[in-house]
Every structure is written in C-alpha cells, then in structure tokens.
Amino acid sequence: MNKPAMPNSFRTGPDEQGMFGIFGGRFVAETLMPLILDLEEQWNH
Questions:
Q1: pLDDT of res. 1
Q2: In three state form, how does the secondary structure of 3-34 look?
Q3: What are phi and psi of 7, to 5 degrees?
Q4: Handedness of CA 26, 32, 35, 39 (dihedral sign)
Q5: In terms of Cα–Cα distance, which of 8, 40, 43 is closest to 22?
Q6: What pLDDT digit, counting tens, does each position of 1-45 carry?
Q7: 0.85 exceeded by the pTM?
Q8: CA end-to-end distance (rounded Å), the chain
Q9: Are the C-beta atoms of residues 22 and 39 closer than 8 Å to each other?
Q10: Cα dist from 33 to 6, 12, 17, 26, 37, whole Å
C-alpha cells in the first residue's frame, strides 16, 4: 500500500529530501533562482 501524499503546502516544510509536498521543488522567488543555484553549486564543492 502506498503512503498517502503529503499536502502541497509551505506550512509542512521540506521533507527529508528537501522536497515540498507532492510536487517537490523549491519554495523561492524566481528572481532569486540564479543566486540559489550558485549557492548550491558552491555548497556541493
């Protein structure tokens, strides 16, 4: 049996994999994405 999907809400916060609700993704303004991606790249190095 499948685990019920978590509601898609910013109130639930990210899960253990950093995903938000059933759609995953990132809860951040589109204008900040280049900075977030750069930060993520630097963090992974």
A1: 61
A2: CCCCCCCHHHCCCCCCCCHHHCCCCCCHHHHH
A3: -60, 145
A4: negative
A5: 8
A6: 676 665 555 566 777 777 777 777 777 888 999 998 999 899 888
A7: no
A8: 39
A9: no
A10: 25, 21, 19, 9, 6
